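pinging the channel bc i need a second pair of eyes. not urgent but kinda urgent?? the chain im working w is below, pasted from the shared doc
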Amino acid sequence: MKRKIFIIGGAGYIGSHMVKAASLANYEVITIDNLSTGHADAVLSGELEVCDIRNKSQLDLLFKKYKPEAVLHFGAYSIVSESVKEPHKYYDNNVTGTLTLLEVMLENNCQNIIFSSTAAVFGNPEYLPIDENHIKKPINPYGNSKLMVEKMLEDFSNAYKLSYIVFRYFNAVGHDKTTGLKERHEPETHLFPIIMEVIQGARENLTIYGTDYDTYDGTCIRDYIHVEDLCLAHLKGLEVLISKGNSIISDDYNLGNGKGFSVKEVITEFKKVAKVKFDVKYGRRRGGDPSVLIASHKKASRELGFTPTKSGLSEIIKSLI
């Protein structure tokens, strides 16, 4: 008998890849998404229920209908610059929405959740690579909202015996070439899909935001991980939660490839691998962007047996073109 799971935000970029991965791993997947930024046609298997996690009564009906064993929560707004301009939107959905979700879970005896968090909870790094013990000092409302949920999960675990795993991402990238699943943000703010839009003629040029960061070439350095590697980590975490018996799980893991690439390096590699040329312009920094973010995934490797296998820079680019 298949185990039932809810994937919140399963119509979005990472969530839709997770729906596919979990279905192939023999889970019965029910996607819950309000479709504010997701796409119904990206949900390739299982049921899709259109619901906002802030709608407690509707959410409660869905838990009573399906009775899931675990929840994977990807349903957040995640644009750093937008969060600086519209913090209410981020606290309302990311924090209030998650609180409502947790309330309904507990009321329906669902005790297992995997939460999609972010490197943004760390702020400007004090050392690299960033491990799970690094101090958490977000520098934007998006990071604040995610850290609030992390604290919430810890408190709920202590008080209500909720089991949880937090996964912090360091820039998810890549496409699934077999199904056509890809990033489809509107507007697009992420580097790799923007470069693809330039290559495909949907944009005239690429703008680098900030060339005066404290890095070796003045542009931001980020740790990129292929979305399929992220899904693998979630499957390993889900197995831990569901097989835990009567024990309570409360743990956190950073997910990245352990290497950093600057914006200029990514552009150079794109031109090399895709064998294309395109124009680059320069603009001012965007609000809330730290100079460098690089993850240590040693804990996930040690405890979950997780090792990224598809997250080399050229491999990621080849999955896009």
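so The radius of gyration is 19 Å. and The longest helix spans residues 87-107. — does that match what u expected or am i reading it wrong
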